[in-house]
Amino acid sequence: MTIAIKALTADETTARMDALVEILCDVVDGGGSVNFLAPMDRGMARSFWQGVVPAVASGDRVLFVAEDASGPVGTVQLEIVRKPNQPHRCEVAKLLVHRRARRQGIASKLMQALEAEARRQGRTLLTMDTVNGSPAEALYRGLGFQAAGVIPRYALGTTGKLEDTLVMYKELG
Predict the structure, then answer these.
(1) CA separation for the pair 41, 81 (Å, rounded)
(2) Rounded distance, CA 106 to CA 17, Å?
(3) Over the stretch 95-149, which tens digit does the pLDDT of each residue have?
(4) Which domains does the chain have, with CATH numbers?
């Protein structure tokens, strides 16, 4: 299966809205803790993605999509930090891969594209958080992210149980 990774414009994001909603719903309903509770409400998922469009249009966010022959199967977002004292930093958000497309290296390819864009923009530090002890933590560690620390009982997981979050970072060379 051939996977293409690309950064979307705001118009391209809007054109792929149904597929993006499907990916978010699938990830949350499959146990992915990405700020939502299961079962994922499709209207809430659509509202989330509609909120991403203006940030993409303004350049405050870069949305990458992984597509196969059937369309989008994964996404990740690079949030551009605009604080005057942090021109070197970006945040990683919402690495999502549909369950039907997992275990094919898509998450790693999305993250490679994200890192390349951060470097292109002159950024040298990526930050993010994930559920402590989750499969996502293992993925990020494998990609060179390091642990900064754990915040106990940080957020509700998809089932409504409080979970610890792990703050991670990666210095880009």
Answers:
(1) 29
(2) 20
(3) 999 999 999 999 999 999 999 999 999 999 999 999 999 999 999 999 999 999 9
(4) 4-122 (3.40.630.30)
Three-state DSSP state, 148 = strand
pLDDT at 41 over 90: yes
- Whether the full predicted model's pTM is greater than 0.85, yes or no, is yes
Cα 98 from chain centroid (whole Å): 12
In angstroms, how far is the first alpha carbon of the chain from the final one? 31
What is the phi/psi pair of residue 26, to 5°? -65, -45
Name which of 42, 2, 5, 168 is nearest 93 in CA terms.
168
The 3-state secondary structure of 31-56 reads CCCCCCCCCCCHHHHHHHHHHHHHHH
Distance CA 27, CA 47 (A): 16
